[in-house]
């Protein structure tokens, strides 16, 4: 099958096989045709690429790829295994061989090159960049590249990052750049303020759990730039805690981020983690004795969101039960076994507390078992 592929198109075919094997999202035929059309190893511009029809692209992969339920996949599961195995390296089709790291670096570089090509550095004003982002008609491949180049790069140890990728990654993450704005703008349901992240790329890398890129920005930024400050680290810690980026939380604390800092919006990493069901981060911050002064706020936030496992953890770690938490669990989550068990725990640890408010809440919410 591999020997019968069109030799003139071999670079595109190999590139496409890497994409199908290790893409973060399942490829459809339209996206595969864009990948196949734009042979990024030759640094073609979008206008120079020779178009391949989405209807025709699979014919170049006869016996290798098929379309099923709108998605492109290998014709047989063993094909990916063979392409990444040691067996192929000494065979007549060794040119098609690649490792997971090879493929991830290839996709990361392809995406990063395209992303920077579509978001060049220039002298545009902030308002012009914002306006142009709203007007642009983005293709599937452009959108994929913007959202995922960092995630592909994250999957490879930094020791394997070529220097040109490190340089390009730093360029893509420049503050107030068209590139960074595009990346932040691609995040749906952002828990952070876009303009703040545009001035602090650590907020973005922390949100997507990009540990290695976060470390790169801190290590290189502190040595060569002035824009990474204590407040930048603190804001990134909030972002990481909110998103559940456990390793990034640990990294930022090691680099000097503060848990107990007061922000303009009274946000705190422990409270953010508790409200978003990130028990691993809550456990780490509590056990390491961080943010002791906001344990009760974290309990209230966990109760508000119905995160009973976190409520239980905080109470068992000697967080005082609050009236708000008791009333919220009693009246807002019905008579489910989980809420009743949580309520019992709160009651058992609420000695001396008046319970009329919780009783009224339960009655108002028709939580009769409570």
Automatic annotation (TrEMBL):
Keyword Coiled coil: no
InterPro entries hit by this protein: Ankyrin_rpt, Ankyrin_rpt-contain_sf
Protein name in UniProt: Uncharacterized protein
UniProt entry keywords in alphabetical sequence: ANK repeat, Repeat
Keyword flag Cell wall biogenesis/degradation: no
SUPFAM superfamilies membership: Ankyrin repeat
PROSITE patterns xrefs: ANK_REP_REGION, ANK_REPEAT
Segment forming the signal sequence: none
Any Pfam family the entry gives: Ank_2
ANK repeat locations: 232-264
Domain of life per record: Eukaryota
